[in-house]
Write a structure and sequence with these properties.
With 141 residues, the protein is mainly α. It has 6 helices and no strands.
Length: 141
């Protein structure tokens, strides 16, 4: 969300790297949001798509094939998409095996979790923006 001026972390990183050569490696599926694509490309080149308003007018709607071709053409200098099947001869992928382990916090761990949660819910908290205050909750059954 680097395109959002309120996202201080992303914009700080972007500004720190502004005068440096960059390569962006991401596993972010670009089909999730066209605005994610805009944000990622602005890290590399702020001028590739113009400002956010122009980009939204052009691409944040139902696109037809001509729009997709235009988008691909404009992305070509910035983006090299590689699919897993294209690198199988170079990369030996291991079989993915999900291992699940139930977790039951100790009394001390639960107390720490509660204290941190309470801290993050303070109305005047300057350490984190509001959007980053939630802790993931695991429902134990």
């Amino acid at each position: 969300n680097v395109y959002k001026p309120t996202n201080k972390i992303s914009n700080t990183i972007k500004n720190a790297l502004a005068d440096r050569k960059k390569i962006l490696l991401t596993a972010t599926p670009l089909q999730n949001s066209i605005l994610e694509l805009y944000g990622l490309t602005t890290i590399i080149d702020d001028y590739a798509f113009g400002d956010l308003k122009s980009f939204k007018m052009q691409y944040n709607r139902n696109l037809d094939e001509t729009d997709y071709q235009n988008l691909r053409r404009r992305l070509a200098p910035l983006c090299k998409r590689t699919l897993r099947r294209q690198v199988l001869e170079y990369v030996r992928y291991t079989k993915r095996i999900a291992i699940l382990q139930e977790f039951f916090p100790t009394k001390q761990e639960q107390e720490l979790y509660d204290l941190v949660s309470e801290y993050l819910q303070r109305p005047r908290l300057y350490a984190l923006p509001n959007s980053q205050r939630q802790l993931m909750t695991l429902i134990l059954r």
